[in-house]
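Support request, please re-run this one:
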Amino acid sequence: MIMTYEWVGITDSSDELSEMILQSEQAATYRDAYDSVYSDKLLAKEIHDFARLKELYEEVQRFGKYHPDYKRVMKQIRVDKRRLDLNEKVAELRLAENELQDLMDQVSFILGRSVSEAVKIPSSNPFFSSDSSCGSGCGTGGGCSCSA
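Re-run finished. Output below.
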């Protein structure tokens, strides 16, 4: 591809935009919350152990109730997830993550709409992902009476 002045301008603008996002309040809050969680060695170990338990959970899900560790794993995953969900640092990280994701969704929406109204925009927020009345695109073949 031949680099034109227009492409240079676009890449410069995208670099500026990414730098603005990285310097945003949401990104700073996320970095602080992330550092707070992963600088706590005990909490980081709990998260690591939970990730290993999730792998075991996925294996158990393949076989269902016929897996020999089904009851133990199902109970343990719920207990551990609840404990992590109730941890204040983890809750702050999730909130910060959601705020940063909302910022990214807004930026994606603005960029997508500047190209065309028909551009599909991936988003975690149904407000940004579709203009249909069902909120997230119709997977029911029109059964939800949306305008898909």
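Helices lie at 5-22, 25-39, 41-63, 70-86, 88-115, 126-129. The radius of gyration is 21 Å.
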